Amino acid sequence: MNRFWHVRSARTLALMISFVIVLAASVLLALSCILRLVNGQWPAAAEQSIKTVSNLRFNDNLAVIVMVVLAVLGLLLLLSALIPGRRQTILLNSDDPSARSEQAISCRGISTLVGYEVERTDSVTRASVTTSPKLVRVTVQTPAHSVQRVRENVQARVQGVIDGLPVQRAPKVKVSVQRRGGN
């Protein structure tokens, strides 16, 4: 089973940046062409650009700079397409081992489940949960004096949530407690 594409995130930031750059260039080119058709002459900025480009030689500084920038941009886009993103899901155990499909739960979903359970713990005023496929990191704020007891209670509840999920590899749990407020 090929799990490469299922559990890796897309490089959406690089795609969005390249999309905006190409869209802006396309709109400017289309606008220049429309103005050429309407007025019978190129806009001043487009005419200046056409003259500059037509007088360029391969060994001119501007041509070399443009080629280097385009090469770096192309390499960046190629690498962002080839190098996968961080894993954002955790694979679940399947009831049917011969099945040709697989189920996964997102790290955000686990964070939500753990966050609800942690916020129900006594003496917890605030909780923050971040999850990766290898680690569930829980940060808790409490006004209680006994920080160790709160840490143990939160650790037990989080471990109970993780143990209740049919994940193939359970992430480790790290709990940190901060004392805020109280007397």
Helix content: 40-55%
**Are there runs of 5+ residues with pLDDT below 50, and where?**
none
- Number of strand elements: 5
Distance between the ends: 57 Å
Q: What best-fitting shape do the alpha-carbon axes yield?
A: elongated
What integer is the average pLDDT? Answer: 84
Question: Helical segment tally?
Answer: 5
Task: Characterize the main sheet.
Answer: 3 strands, mixed
Strand content is 15-25%
Give the strand order, joined by hyphens, for the main sheet.
Answer: 3-4-5
Q: SSE order, as H and E?
A: HHHEEHEEHE
Gyration radius over CA: 28 Å
**Structural class based on helices, strands and sheet pairing:** alpha+beta
Describe this entry's structure for a reader.
With 183 residues, the protein is an alpha+beta fold. The chain has helices at residues 12-39, 44-54, 61-82, 107-119, 147-164; strands at residues 89-91, 104-106, 126-131, 135-142, 172-179. The protein has a 3-stranded mixed beta sheet, with helices on one face. Strands 1-2 form a two-stranded antiparallel sheet. Helix 5 links the parallel strand 4 (135-142) and strand 5 (172-179). Helix 4 crosses helix 5 (147-164). The N and C termini lie far apart (57 Å). The relative contact order is 0.11. The model has no long low-confidence stretch (mean pLDDT 84).
